[in-house]
C-alpha cells in the first residue's frame, strides 16, 4: 500500500473511528466488549484483547483496536513484519496509537472460522488443514513460534486455510493446540462429519472447549504477549503513525 494511502487511512481511523469508540476488557479471559462505535463502523468480531471493525467503503480492509489495558499490539505488529506477505496470513498495512488507543489496519478476511464451520455444518476441507500446516512451517522459517492456533483463529476462505491471529507467535513456550486440533480433525471430524457435515450444537462445542481446557490445564489469566527487540525485526511496510 502506498504511503499516502496509509496516511489517509490513518487519518480516518484516528479522526472518525477512535474518538467515538469505547472498547473495554471486563474480564481478561472473556472477549472485549464494544460499548459504543461510530455509525458505519461495523464490528466483525471480538477477541480477548481487541475488537475488529470493517473499514467503511473498502471491503478489503479491517481495523483492529486493542482495548485499553490489554497488551499485544506491539507483538502483533512485529509478527506481521516478520511474516511479510504470505497467502495463508493476513497483512498489516499500518498501525498507530492515538489518544491511548492502539490500532492496526489489516487485510480483511472474508472466510469462516473452523469453529463457525462446525456450528453451521459447513465442510472443512483437508486442503485448509494442509494450508495451515504449511503456513506454520513458514512462520518457523521466519524465526517465529506458532502459538494459540485453534478453531477460532483459523478461517476457511474459498476452500483454503488462513491463520487470522498471529499475536502470540513471539512466545517462547511450545503450544500443542494445532497438533491437537489436527488429531481431532483426523480421528473425530473425518469419520463422523467428513462425508455429511451437520451443525454441531453450541452447547456441545462449549462442552468440548472447556473439557479441552481442563485437560490442558490452561490457566484462565493469560500471560503477557512477548515483544521482540525492535532491532531484530526486518523493516517493512507497517507504518506507525504518531500519537
Ligand atoms: N483480518 C480480519 N478480517 C475479518 N475479521 C477479522 C480479522 N481479524 C479478526 N477478525 C475477527 O475478529 C475476531 C477477533 O480477532 P482476533 O482473534 O485477532 O482478536 P484477539 O483479541 O487478538 O483474539 P484472541 O482472544 O484469540 O487473542 C476474530 O475471531 C474474527 O472474527
Automatic annotation (TrEMBL):
Residues 220-233 have a biased composition (Basic and acidic residues). The keyword Transferase applies. InterPro entries: Kinase-like_dom_sf, Meiotic_Drive_Suppr_Kinase, Protein_kinase_ATP_BS. Residues 218-243 are annotated as: Disordered. SUPFAM superfamilies: Protein kinase-like (PK-like). The keyword ATP-binding applies. This is Serine/threonine protein kinase. One of its GO terms (molecular function) is ATP binding. Signal peptide: none annotated. Keywords: ATP-binding, Kinase, Nucleotide-binding, Serine/threonine-protein kinase, Transferase. It comes from Paenibacillus pasadenensis. ATP binds at residue 64. PROSITE patterns: PROTEIN_KINASE_ATP (PS00107).
Amino acid at each position: 500500500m502506498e504511503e499516502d494511502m496509509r496516511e489517509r487511512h490513518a487519518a480516518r481511523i484516528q479522526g472518525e473511528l477512535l474518538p467515538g469508540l469505547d472498547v473495554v476488557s471486563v474480564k481478561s479471559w472473556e472477549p472485549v466488549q464494544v460499548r459504543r462505535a461510530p455509525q458505519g463502523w461495523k464490528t466483525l468480531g471480538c477477541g480477548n484483547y481487541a475488537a475488529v471493525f470493517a473499514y467503511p467503503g473498502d471491503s478489503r480492509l479491517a481495523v483492529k483496536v486493542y482495548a485499553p489495558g490489554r497488551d499485544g499490539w506491539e507483538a502483533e505488529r512485529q509478527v506481521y513484519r516478520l511474516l511479510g506477505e504470505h497467502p495463508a496470513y493476513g497483512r498489516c498495512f499500518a498501525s498507530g496509537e492515538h489518544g491511548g488507543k492502539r490500532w492496526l489496519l489489516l487485510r480483511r478476511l472474508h472466510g469462516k472460522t473452523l469453529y463457525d464451520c462446525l456450528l453451521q455444518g459447513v465442510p472443512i476441507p483437508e486442503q485448509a488443514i494442509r494450508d495451515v500446516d504449511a503456513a506454520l512451517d513458514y512462520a518457523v522459517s521466519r524465526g517465529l513460534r506458532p502459538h494459540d492456533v485453534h478453531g477460532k483463529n483459523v478461517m476457511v476462505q474459498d476452500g483454503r486455510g488462513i491463520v487470522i491471529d498471529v499475536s502470540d507467535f513471539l512466545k517462547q513456550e511450545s503450544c500443542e493446540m494445532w497438533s491437537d486440533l489436527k488429531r481431532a480433525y483426523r480421528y473425530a471430524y473425518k469419520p463422523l462429519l467428513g462425508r455429511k457435515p451437520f451443525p454441531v450444537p453450541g452447547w456441545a462445542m462449549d462442552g468440548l472447549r472447556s473439557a479441552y481446557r481442563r485437560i490442558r490445564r490452561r490457566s484462565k489469566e493469560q500471560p503477557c504477549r512477548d515483544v521482540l527487540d525492535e532491532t531484530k525485526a526486518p523493516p517493512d511496510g507497517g507504518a506507525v503513525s504518531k500519537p
